[in-house]
Specification:
Helices cover 20% and strands 39% of the residues. By secondary structure, it is of the alpha+beta class. Strand 3 and strand 4 form a beta hairpin. The termini are far apart.
C-alpha cells in the first residue's frame, strides 16, 4: 500500500510527537546543553541552496528541516516532501544538511531546523533568492541623427531582485546626469528599472559608443552591457593646406582642400578671385588637390575651396603670393650703396673735424714781438734806423717780450 504525500507528512509528524512523549526526565536533563545551529543563505535564482543544521552535543535526538510553509522536508535521513529539487547531503546525530537546486523566487523565506528534545529546540535560517536582471535594451535611437538635434536614449531591464543599478557611458567615460526609475513587476517580487539619457547631437559624437551597464549582486561582478553606436550627420568643415610656405616664380605648388563631413563631401569646387580657374593647362584639379605649375605673378590672388554634402555647404580661402627669386637673392646679398653711403659720411665727418681743429689751433697760436723791430719800423730813414738799432743794443736790458 502506497501512502500519499499528505499521509506521509502526518506520519513523520506523529513520529516526532511520539519521540517527544518518550523522552525521559534524565534525557531532558542531559539535553539542556544541546542547541541546533544554522546560517542564513543567499543564492541566485536558478542556483542551488545548501541548508545545514549542526548540533555540538546530541544524545541520539532527531533533527528535522521544514520550509517556510512549515512542511517537513527531511526528518533525519528520511525525505518527507516529494520534491526532486530537494536532496539529502549529510545526515548524522550531529548534522542534517540538505540542498535545494534550481531555486526560484518562491523558495525564498525562513527555514527551520528542529531538535526534538524536551522541549523542542529550533533554529531559523533565512533563504534569500536574488532575481537576475534581464539583458538591458537601449531604445530611442533612430539612425542617422542630424547635428544639433536633441536625443533621448532609454535603457531598460526587468526581473532584478533587489532593484538593479543602471549606469551610462560614452566611449568608456561615465555620464552622471541621467534619470532613474524603479517599478515593481507583476509578481511583486522583482523590479523593472529604466534610465533615460538626454543630450544634443554633436559632430564629435559621430562614431561614439554609448553603453548602458547594469550592475547587480547576482551578476558576480560581471555586469550586463548594451551598446549603441551613434551616427551623426553634419555639414562639412574645410581647410586648405599648401605644399610651399614661400612659393616662387617658376616653381609648382599644390593646394589641398581637406574637407570632413557626414556624408563625406565629394568632389570639392576650386575657384580663383570669385571665378573659374583662369589657366586650366597649368591649374589642374585632381580630387581635392589643386596643382599650379610654373608659377608667375599672374597667379597671385585668392583661391577658394568649397565642399558640399546633403546637409549643407562650407568653404575656405587661401591667398597666394608668388615671390621673385632674384629680389629675394638681392635682399640676402650685401647692400653696396648702403656701405658707400656710410663711408662717405665717415669721410665727411673726418674732414670737418680736421678743419675745425686747424682753426682752433690757429686762433690760439702765440705771437712774439720785440722792441728791436719796432725801433726800425718807426725810423724815418735808414740812418735813423741804424741809430735806433744801436741805441737799442745799448739798452738791451730794456728789451721786452710779449706773449699773447
Amino acid at each position: 500500500m502506497r501512502l500519499r504525500p499528505s499521509a506521509l507528512l502526518r506520519f513523520y509528524s506523529l513520529c516526532g510527537l511520539l519521540i517527544q512523549a518518550a523522552a525521559t526526565k534524565n534525557k531532558v536533563k542531559g539535553s539542556q546543553g544541546q542547541f541546533p545551529l544554522t546560517q542564513n543563505v543567499t543564492v541566485v535564482e536558478g542556483g542551488t541552496a545548501n541548508l545545514t543544521c549542526r548540533v555540538d552535543q546530541n544524545d541520539n535526538t532527531s533533527l528535522q528541516w521544514s520550509n517556510p510553509a512549515q512542511q517537513t522536508l527531511y526528518f533525519d535521513d528520511k525525505k518527507a516532501l516529494r520534491d526532486n529539487r530537494i536532496e539529502l547531503v549529510r545526515a548524522s546525530w550531529h548534522e542534517l544538511s540538505i540542498s535545494v537546486s534550481d531555486v526560484s523566487l518562491s523558495d525564498e523565506g525562513q527555514y527551520t531546523c528542529s531538535l526534538f528534545t524536551m522541549p523542542v529546540k529550533t533554529s531559523k535560517a533565512f533563504l534569500t533568492v536574488l532575481g537576475v536582471p534581464e539583458k538591458p535594451q537601449i531604445s530611442g535611437f533612430s539612425s542617422p541623427v542630424m547635428e544639433g538635434e536633441k536625443m533621448q536614449l532609454t535603457c531598460k531591464t526587468s526581473g532584478s531582485k533587489p532593484a538593479a543599478d543602471i549606469r551610462w557611458f560614452k566611449n568608456d567615460k561615465e555620464i552622471k546626469d541621467v534619470k532613474y526609475l524603479k517599478e515593481e513587476d507583476g509578481n511583486r517580487r522583482t523590479f523593472t528599472v529604466s534610465s533615460t539619457l538626454d543630450f544634443r547631437a554633436d559632430r564629435s559624437d559621430d562614431g561614439a559608443v554609448v553603453s548602458c551597464r547594469v550592475d547587480h549582486e547576482s551578476l558576480n561582478s560581471t555586469p550586463q552591457i548594451a551598446r549603441q553606436v551613434l551616427e551623426i550627420h553634419y555639414t562639412p568643415s574645410v581647410k586648405i593646406i599648401s605644399s610651399s610656405s614661400w612659393p616662387e616664380e617658376g616653381q609648382s605648388i599644390v593646394l589641398t582642400c581637406e574637407s570632413k563631413g557626414k556624408p563625406l563631401p565629394e568632389p570639392v569646387l576650386w575657384t580663383k578671385d570669385g571665378g573659374e580657374l583662369p589657366d586650366p593647362e597649368r591649374m589642374v584639379v585632381n580630387g581635392r588637390d589643386l596643382r599650379i605649375s610654373f608659377l608667375n605673378k599672374t597667379d597671385n590672388g585668392t583661391y577658394r575651396c568649397e565642399a558640399t554634402n546633403p546637409i549643407g555647404q562650407n568653404s575656405t580661402e587661401y591667398v597666394l603670393i608668388v615671390h621673385d627669386p632674384n629680389a629675394l637673392a638681392g635682399q640676402t646679398g650685401p647692400d653696396h650703396a648702403l656701405i658707400g653711403g656710410i663711408v662717405a659720411v665717415v669721410v665727411f665727418v673726418t674732414l670737418c673735424s680736421i678743419i675745425l681743429l686747424g682753426r682752433y689751433l690757429a686762433r690760439h697760436k702765440g705771437t712774439y714781438l720785440t722792441n728791436e723791430a719796432k725801433g726800425a719800423e718807426d725810423a724815418p730813414d735808414a740812418d735813423t734806423a741804424i741809430i735806433n738799432a744801436e741805441g737799442s743794443q745799448v739798452n738791451a736790458e730794456e728789451k721786452k717780450e710779449y706773449f699773447i
